[in-house]
Write a structure and sequence with these properties.
single chain, mainly alpha, 0% strand, globular
Length: 228
């Protein structure tokens, strides 16, 4: 009884509450005035608290962490999937950056631009705090817990992958429509090795590399070309 309530309640948090909070964040222009490191710290704390809540739910529901993707895979499979995911994702992001610089893609919202690191200290924070936080927490929450829960409830791994990816996209509402679509597609891509290997570790590694490159290289490149 308690286990079912815990699982259902946390499922509701991921599907409805997190996207609602993301939308609310996008409607708060005063956030743009906050120091960038403060934004980074706030985002990291929020994600780790949500992930900690997820861990409590897993324990309360007597779920196996291995069942939600926390088990080792052969090194060759790990590096293969990490490389494939990272290369494909960065190629797609690079194309988006080029299209935006050419004026053929709508620019990122101001809130997203406010999060792009400018200084060396901010880039260090991006690589050592933001990228690993997103990689560990989001992969555990969306490709681990949510994908497993939806697969069990819907009796369809494919449908669960699609829905979990859409929910992941909605969690990035603050990035605008382009950001939602981009995150949803990335989420679906990151779900593939989880389904094939039963492990979230290649997706975590790839997620970290994608965010690290996007925050320290691709994002600043957009800002430099835009003259900001």
């Amino acid at each position: 009884m308690i286990a079912g309530i815990a699982e259902g309640g946390f499922l509701l948090v991921l599907v409805a509450v997190v996207p609602a909070l993301s939308y609310r964040t996008s409607r708060r222009p005063e956030i743009l005035a906050l120091p960038r490191l403060q934004l980074y710290l706030s985002a990291a704390i929020s994600q780790w608290l949500l992930a900690a809540l997820g861990v409590v739910v897993v324990w309360a529901a007597s779920l196996s962490f291995a069942a939600i993707g926390f088990h080792a895979v052969p090194a060759l499979a790990f590096f293969f999937w990490t490389a494939i995911l990272t290369c494909v994702s960065l190629a797609a992001l690079g194309l988006v950056v080029w299209l935006e610089l050419m004026g053929w893609w709508s620019p990122e919202p101001e809130l997203v631009r406010a999060l792009i690191p400018r200084t060396r200290e901010e880039k260090i924070w991006a690589v050592l705090v933001i990228a690993p936080t997103a990689a560990v927490c989001e992969e555990f929450l969306y490709r681990g817990f949510l994908l497993a829960e939806l697969s069990q409830r819907l009796h369809s791994v494919a449908l669960a992958a699609v829905l979990s990816s859409l929910v992941f996209g909605m969690a990035h509402t603050y990035q605008g429509l382009n950001g939602i679509a981009r995150a949803a597609l990335l989420g679906f891509l990151l779900a593939i090795p989880v389904i094939r290997l039963g492990s979230v570790f290649p997706s975590m590694a790839s997620h970290f590399l994608i965010d690290a490159v996007a925050l320290t290289l691709l994002g600043p490149e957009i800002m430099k070309k835009a003259g900001r």
